Amino acid sequence: MGALAIKNVTKRFGDTHILKGIDINIDSGQFLILVGPSGCGKSTLMNIIAGLEAPTSGEVQIGDRVVNDVAPKDRDIAMVFQSYALYPTMNVRQNIAFGMETRGVPRKEQDETIARVAKMLQIDHLLDRKPGQLSGGQRQRVAMGRALARNPTLFLFDEPLSNLDAKLRVEMRTEIKQLHHRLKTTIVYVTHDQIEAMTLGDRIAVMKDGVIQQFGSPEEIYERPANLFVAGFIGSPSMNFIDCHLAEQDGAVGVSLQSEGGARFVSLPDGQRFAGHLGQKVILGVRPEQIEVAEEDEPALLCKVHLTEPTGPDTMIFTQINGKEVIARVHPRAAGRPGDSMRLKLDLGKVVLFDPQSEARLG
Amino acid sequence: MDNQNKLWRIALYGVLLYAAVYYLLPLYVMVTTSVKSMDEIRAGNLIALPMSITFDAWSKAWSSACTGVDCGGLSGYFWNSVKMVIPAVLISTSLGAINGYVLSKWRFRGSELTFALILFGVFIPFQVVLLPMAQTLGWFGLARSVAGLIFVHVVFGIASTTLFFRNYYVGIPDELIKAARLDGAGFWRIFFKVVLPMSTPIVMVVLIWQFTQIWNDFLFGVVFSSGDSQPITVGLNNLANTSTSVKEYNVDMAAAIIAALPTIVVYVLAGKYFVRGLTAGAVKG
Q: Does domain A2-233 have CATH number 3.40.50.150?
């Protein structure tokens, strides 16, 4: 069953187009991520789903009803805000109960819901405190508790983790994922953090300038990015973009790579699919982990190490190919020192090509 | 260096002490003169302590001093002021709170312009509106009544109370209102349950501000009231200007203190909120 359908939604303020025709369809129980840099329109889209803003045109469907003219409170949704938006003058219990009180839920049922939610989120001991007396992580839990008490068909999370410190953010991320596994409720989650997007989402919509650049599973987005923007936005460190010429050599389609230690023609697997672009400039997209240290007997490119960044499990090697700075993620024991030369090879099965003009992925 | 620091301190405290004495001296003279007898005032020195303390001047100022032809003291005027100031303060503060809430959290097309127009009220000199206002009060049948004075003070209070509340509410995060809307709360429920409970500091500021403004007002009082509806500021003026054979300085002083006492009391009781409220907007909510 469809849980949320957004059909050709646009939003305009005067001459400013915030959203330019958004289409999204997700199934019940899915975890949808809206991700993009600030100003891409993701928060506006979230507000339109919540009913806090009206779209200029298009249709929003939650469950099986069109909700364009339904008030936020009647959309059967609950929202967790970036600033948590806890009512500062009420204690935690009152914060969670406020919505139920407004809707006239009987007292006994309210108490049961509060007890259930508090237990689930381990905030039982905080019920009588005011938000000002809570830590960031606790406030986050209370904000989620308030949403859970509603038991909605759709949860909306608006950058819920961006006000937490790094360690807590990772913990809460895991908790949100566990919560989703347990409740199986549909979630729409706005973030600008691509790691949150990858770790949490079933479906990811990457947005920029009011347009969805790509909509798909995390694997699709990571391995087959639709364009240069998606490729550069998702993944850390970012994908390397190497300017090349697509050429044919001994019947194989490939590109020439020039490092400071040598040059080599590498043929692309299934290269004929790019035949239409022979002789043209292309951009070769290689993720850092797709550049590996070559074995003794393998053909390789001799690369000079400019800089290394050890992260613990991996070490980032900064080098140069075709005049562009390139980062390779290698095992710390295989990493050379700055000034050394290393024999590197590309994992050609996974590299992607982009058209430098349209910025779209080729093939 | 240390010695120089100490010198600075001494100089600083010296200046502060001088300023404090300078400003407190009139109050001191008023209080001491009001408890002296006329004989002592005539014989003695203005800043000398009273030789014997008597509250005759106070009781005369309150209940039997002449203000024009009546000789009933200030008590009647005092209660007029109370009857005027309490409703006027409460109504203008409530309306300002609602205006501020609407202009900051329920913006509509033209709300900024509305706010700008309301702000004009803060800068309009009151003398300009005396005549039209007198005409308006006449149409409403409120001329020369306490109700008419309340009306005038509410109308002129709204500009500044709206300004205070609007600027305070701008600092309340919009997400809070969104959250309450998703919780199903409407305009009034959000106002009374979410916004108003957060407003204590600014409510105190506005109450003190309005109380002081309205209690101390003389112009509207003298123009728009007469006889038994006049406020205390007018009463004090009449008392001090009524010529009898001798000028009773002690009665004048006592009357002046009676007229000023309520605003002093309000400031002392709620003054800590005043400073806190004025700075609260700057703190992240």
A: no
Minimum distance, in Å, between the CA of residue B42 and any CA atom of chain A: 60
Closest by Cα among A161, A11, A90 to B185: A90
Domains of chain B, earliest start first: 2-54 (no CATH), 75-280 (1.10.3720.10)
Q: How does pLDDT run across B91-130, given as a tens digit for each residue?
A: 999 999 999 999 999 999 999 999 999 998 889 898 899 9
User: Are A79 and B179 an interchain contact pair (Cβ–Cβ within 8 Å)?
Assistant: yes
A202-217 b/e with 16+ CB inside 10 Å = b?
A: bbbbbbbebbbbbbbe
Residue B242 confidence (pLDDT):
81
Report the distance separating Cα A123 and Cα A144, nearest Å.
11
Partners of residue A89 in chain B, C-beta under 8 Å: 194, 197-198
* Spans of chain A below 70 pLDDT: 1
Instruction: Answer yes or no: do B181 and A72 touch at CB < 8 A.
Output: yes
How far B183 CA lies from chain A's nearest CA (Å)?
A: 4
B4: pLDDT strictly greater than 90: no
Are B183 and A102 an interchain contact pair (Cβ–Cβ within 8 Å)? yes
Task: Reply yes or no on whether the pLDDT at B244 is more than 80.
Answer: no
Probe site for chain B from A44, A46, A48, A83 (most B CB atoms < 10 A): A83
The domains of chain A are located at 2-233, 240-354
- Look up the CATH superfamily of A240-354: Nucleic acid-binding proteins (2.40.50.140)
Token code pair at residue B239: 């008392």
